[in-house]
Structures are given as C-alpha cells and as structure tokens.
Amino acid sequence: MSVDFQGWTNTHLARFEVVLEGLLPSADAAPQRLHEAMRYSVLQGGKRVRPLLAFAAAEMVGAQLSRAHIAATAVELVHAYSLVHDDMPCMDDDVLRRGKPTCHVQFDEATALLVGDSLQTLAFQLLADHQLNDVASRQLEMVKLLAIASGSRGMAGGQAIDLASVGKSLSVPELEFMHIHKTGALIRAAILLGANCGNPSDEQLAKLDHFGKCVGLAFQVVDDVLDAEADTATLGKTAGKDADNDKPTYVTLLGVQAAKEMAKQLHQDALESLSGFGDSAQHLRDLADFIVLRKY
C-alpha cells in the first residue's frame, strides 16, 4: 500500500460519515423508531470498503467528489439493508454485527424488515434526487446498474443461492457463481458508479469492471478464511458461523492454504487490470491490497 493510503482513507471516511449522517432521516422525524433503527444500522460501523472503492474510481477518472459521495452513499445504504435482512432469523439468524447487537435484536424483527426496505428505497431516491453526471442517460444507466447489482441477478439472487446451498456440496465454479452475485455484484457496482460520476472511456470501464470482479471475489475468499481463523471480537460478528450452519465456503472446499492462494491470485489479476493507468489508479491498488491483507 502507498505511504499516504491511511491518510487518504481517514480523510475520505471522515467526510463520508458527515455526508451519510446528513442524508439519513433524522431520528426525531416520524416515525422515530424506524428512523432511529435506520441510523443505528448504518452509522458508526463497518469498513466502508464500497464507498472507498467508489471514491478511488471517481478519482481515477477525475470525477467530482461531491457526486461520488452520493453514489457511495447509495451503495452503502443497499449494503447496510442487506446486512440487516441477512442477520434476521429467517435467514442467517445472527445476533452480532459490526461489534454490536444486530438490528432485529436491538429493536425487533418487524422494525428490522422495515429498516431494510427503507434503506434500499432511500438509496434509489438519492440517485434520482442529485445530479451525478452532466449526461442524463449516463445517470439513468447508474440507476439501472445499482438495481441489477442489488436484485435477483445480483446480491439478492446470490443470497437466495446461499440459503439453498446449506448442507450441500458445491463445486468451486458453483461457489464462485454464488459469490460473484452475493458479494461481488455490489462491490463491482460501487466501482462503476464512482467512475460514472465522471466521463470514463469504454476501455476504462471495461478494466474497472474486471478489477471489480476480481476484488469482489477476493473479498469473499478472504472473508471465508477469516471466518475460519479469526475470533468474534476481531471480526465484530460471530466467528465460525458459516461452518456451524454447514454452509459451503472456499475453506471447506479448498482448505485454508489453497483459499489464501486463490485470494493472492485474484489480487494479482486485479492489479494487472489497472496496468497502464499510472498514479491515478493508486488508491484502487491500495484498496485491493487492503481487501486481501485485512485481518477483519
């Protein structure tokens, strides 16, 4: 990672938290309990990898940061909604997320369901409310991009496959197909949305798309390794949950060492996709490093 990466990250995240808090409904506004639960589920937690990827992609193409903040917020709201729903008893039934009680534990199941619904719709409201590109057709394409990444052909579809795979033995290609959708789709969308706040060339978008697919899959492989090796306090969520639930993972299919090698290869492929972009893509490279080398 470059020497200024931590400073860059801190600066961007400090500003992003302010923007994010301002775009969420006030906890004092009716219905107060729902809005309180939305803020609880989004603020002061998480690595914010998706927003950082959006900022780095926007930076690479010279897009306005104020526009990238809106795109990043939309992605983070969809991500937060997915976590709220994933943690509910009807899905993964987890009690800890980002080091604190999950939304349905802190509030109740009905509120958690409504929190997810509300965060998702707010994400698309933001994409419609703000000018993110000077060309209307490109902005409309951004709305479509996030919708596909969030729905049955993206994250929600991947979660459906995940739920249907409990207790089953998947092949590595089948597991990759699931995670390209469940985890990778929204990571890829974050990168492309950030880039589309500017005016990227077709070549830039194609290479960023490949980069997003590689780092999205690497993110999940590393998650599986950490789930097997790290403890609950480090992760901020229940360690070993996938194994306890008899879910197929890269570790159960390949073993820890082979899974680490897979992440290493995906990392290298991601970096190679950015060759030729020079210093403008340095923070994307830094984020690829962080995704693969992280400990939580």
CATH superfamily: Farnesyl Diphosphate Synthase
What CATH calls the topology is: Farnesyl Diphosphate Synthase
What would the average pLDDT be, to the nearest integer? 94
What is the overall shape?
globular
The profile of the biggest β sheet is: 2 strands, antiparallel
Q: Report the count of strand segments.
A: 2
What's the total helix number? 15
Number of domains: 1
Assign the CATH class. Answer: Mainly Alpha
Element order: H for helix, E for strand: HHHHEEHHHHHHHHHHH
Q: Report the portion of residues in β strands.
A: under 5%
Helix content: over 70%
Structural class: mainly alpha
The N- to C-terminal Cα distance equals 17 Å
- Radius of gyration, whole Å: 18 Å
Question: Taking strands numbered 1, 2, ... along the chain, how are they ordered across the largest sheet?
Answer: 1-2
CATH-level-2 architecture? Orthogonal Bundle
Q: Give start-end ranges of low-pLDDT stretches.
A: none
Please explain how this structure is put together.
Helix 2 (32-42) packs across helix 6 (109-129). This protein is mostly helical and 296 residues long. It starts with a helix and ends with a helix. Helices cover 71% and strands 1% of the residues.
